[in-house]
Amino acid sequence: MDVQPQSYFFIRYTYRKNFLPLSANNRRYPLCNRSRGGTFFTGTDQGIRYTAQEGDSLHVLPLKALDQTDFQVNTLHYDPMSGRLFIGTLQQGVYIYDTRLHRLSQPSAPLTDASITSIHPLNRQEILIGTDAAGVYKMNTETFYTEIYMDTDPILYPAISGNSISDMYVDPEDRVWIANYPIGITVRNNRYPSYKWIGHSGSNLSHLPNNQINDILQDSEGDLWFATNNGIGLWRQQNGEWRSVLNMSGTSLHPHNHIFLSLSESAPGTIWAGGYAPGIYQIDKKTLSANYVSTFSQDGIQIVPDKYIRSIRKDSQGNIWVGGFSNLMRIRLSTEETRLYPEVSSVTDICERDPDQMWIGTTEGLFLVHTASGQTEKINLPVESTYICSLYQAPNGLLYIGTNYSGLVVYNPGNNSFMNYHKDNSALISNNIYTIVAAGEELVVLTTENGITLFRPREELFQNWTHEQGLLTIHFNETSGTRLRNGNFMMGSSNGAVEFAGTIKLPEGYSSRMVFSDFKIFYETVYPGEPGSPLKTDINDTRELYLNYGQNIFSLRVSSINYDYPSDVLYSWKLEGFYDAWSRPEQENTIRFTNLSPGKYVLHVRAVSNENPRKILEERSLRIIISHPFWVSIWAWMLYLGIITLILLTASTIYLLRRKRKSSEEKIRFFINTAHDIRTPLSLIKAPLEELREQEKLSPSGTGNINTALRNVNALLRLTTNLINFEKADTSGTELYISEYELNTYLNELLETLRSYADVKHIRFTYESNFHYLTVWFDKEKMDSILKNLISNAMKYTPENGNVAVVATQEEHTWSVEVRDTGIGIPSEEQKKLFKSHFRGSNAINSKVTGSGIGLF
Predict the structure, then answer these.
(1) Cα 634–639–643 angle (5° rounding)?
(2) How buried is residue 593: exposed, middle or buried, by Cβ count under 10 Å (0-12/13-18/19+)?
């Protein structure tokens, strides 16, 4: 059987026969699907019908047990375990249709005339029934036993704020959510303990006389006494009867407006009471008569009564100890003798250490009084506040001290050691410990102005019970609490008293879903899709957060969805890659980062329990990547490397050029010095040759030789002059002296100077041109140097009987001179070195022909 939860549909209006007679206003009808065939139980204003869907309408199927019903149906619930359909009606309670037996019935009580608004499963065997004006009931689906589950009566927890129930829901963690009119939503958490609340009810004399409960006493007969701000209330538990004593009611035996703070039973049926202004009274339980107690010293002198009695306690010897603002005294009941202890005043609580010693708590600290000698010893507490609210001595001798503003102090008299628990080092919800009541050494119950704390000394574990966990009243009073004979605890507050089991256990675990929100950059909230926003989705759905270098100041907020105990959640975080230690758990839920360096990080956030910081409720991680600025990116580093390389290359080139220049300068100086030395012999050679040519008659051949020699001598003189002027030319630049020459004439004259050298080497030396007359412009001196160098080299490396030819060529816009020879040439792989300083080809070196390699350079 396929069963689905109750759902609602709008059904189209129709008049067809055998279809639901629906009103034209399209009223919303509850339906319940019970099979795979598309059949429904459908509730209407005129009863419940079994229907099948046909198009947009529901077709009525015959079902005798349901066809005769005429009540208005408000809600339906089908229970698959029992096969029963629970029908909630208007003012006719709950009907039950058994689908297996095809029988309709109605439980007899207590909902026969109630309007049912909601039905929801509570567990496998029980359902919750919400009503209009009668609260919530619980029904067993097998036995149909029905009982009240929640209503506005606060005596039993939990109570709801209104009895008109609109809807209900039970979540996966068994919390019951109740929508009640007109207040809102009430949540009942069944994981937390239930308790009984005892409170005042207006002028009703059959209740507690006042909600301000200052002390609670269970007498020897098991009845409860309550000291309040309006007298004393007596609750006889056996018959539930309430009586009042010493209150302002006109029907009271003693109509006084008295505020009582402390109670003690001196003997069965005799109750001592003290408080503000009234002094001390003895109350006879049987007659409820109250007598004022006058106290006398050992010598019979009446003691001035203390109008502010804070504590009355009976010791193991049967003596009554009374502590107030002015006095601490012991009353021996057997002799009615009263003894004062004048060194102690402003008493707040009294606790017996042993038959010979009493612990006295005051507003000024802790005292130990030796009952016999009267000696008083002040115990110096290691806390800032000396105001003591309550005392409790455990069976193992440890003294629990509740202070005002300094938390809980545990004193070990055996070794004079102290342990102080407060909000900063434990899970205490307050540093004001008003009442201490214990169940042996296993459990100590502490009350505060914020709720109840359960302290388990062996584990040093604190658990808090506050308004968040459904505690109705949370502001408890000083020394107002006791452990009852049945083992339960009863604690007094400013809003009545609460009774709960002595075996109370609060849940140690609960679900808590962590949420990231309110992401800010430079203190401005950023949303997905905004210009410049790094968020593609909401920050809570972001797994990796990419930020630019300029977005390294940011923050985000952490919160937890926790319906059980929101104030118990603390947050701790660490940023992997920056600081690997976890931060101290605290309630501060905004995580901020300022000027975070570029890099990859992982933000880890934990939600931990304040009650047990070792307990991790949840942990989330967020990868954060902050990009590097351009000037530290890989491309920037490549650029920097390129610039540095260029600088190094430039520097090395300059260095090499300078070294080369220095070497060249040294060579130039050598050439200049050599030129100076050559110039003098040349001058001495030139003069005799000129004289010989002018004075001697020579043959034409001799005259030609003399002229050739003179031309070469003049050429050598020009070269030496050029060498001498080379340094100057290197610094000021080389100047060209361009003139017009006829190329054939110039080359013939030049080649004639080299012909004798060709004849000596038996080389065929020729000149050719493709023109008869060509006027060109050049620097004759430099052209002479170039051509003589090329031709002389050609002749030098051309063997005998070889050929050296000079060819001049004219083209359309250019002219050229080529020197061709049949010599050894230059290897092709070495030709690129032709114009390097001192270069000579390898074949030239092997030819053993002398040379310097500087001609072309």
Answers:
(1) 145
(2) middle
CA triple 739-741-742, angle to 5 deg: 170
Please say whether the beta carbons of 434 and 418 come within 8 A: no
- Rounded-to-integer distance, Cα 352 and Cα 367, Å: 12
C-alpha closest to that of 188 among 471, 450, 568, 511: 471
- Strand partners of residue 218: 224
What is this structure's pTM?
Answer: 0.67
Backbone dihedral region of 496: left (phi > 0), alpha (psi from -120 to 50 degrees) or beta? left
Decide the pairing of beta strands 599-609 and 524-525. unpaired
Q: Whose structure tokens read 């002479």?
A: 784
Of 495, 489, 502, 425, the closest CA to residue 460 belongs to 425
* Distance between CA atoms of residues 292 and 277, nearest Å: 12
Q: Is 423 helix (H, G, I), strand (E, B) or coil?
A: coil
- Per-residue CA distances from 346 to 132, 308, 363, 389, 481 (Å): 55, 9, 6, 11, 21
Q: Which of 232, 226, 476, 436 is nearest to 351 (CA)?
A: 436
Sign of CA dihedral 836, 838, 841, 842: negative
pLDDT reported for residue 196: 87
Question: Tokens representing 786?
Answer: 């170039």
What confidence tens digit (pLDDT) does each residue in 608-622 have?
988 887 888 899 999
- Determine if residue 443 is left, alpha or beta; phi over 0 gives left, psi from -120 to 50 gives alpha, anything else beta: beta
From the centroid of its chain, how far is CA 456? 32
Given a contact cutoff of 8 angstroms between Cβ atoms, the answer to whether 107 and 114 are in contact is no
Contacts of 342 (CB under 8 A, 6+ apart): 327
Q: How far apart are the first and last CA of the chain?
A: 109
| Inter-residue contact 106 to 65 (CB < 8 Å) | no
Tokens of 465: 């019970």
Cα distance between residue 224 and residue 97, in whole Å:
49
Cβ neighbours of residue 82 under 8 Å, at least 6 residues apart? 98, 141, 142
Sign of the CA dihedral 844, 846, 847, 851? positive
pLDDT band for position 833 (cuts 50, 70, 90): confident
Instruction: Identify the band that residue 690 occupies on the pLDDT scale cut at 50, 70 and 90.
Output: confident
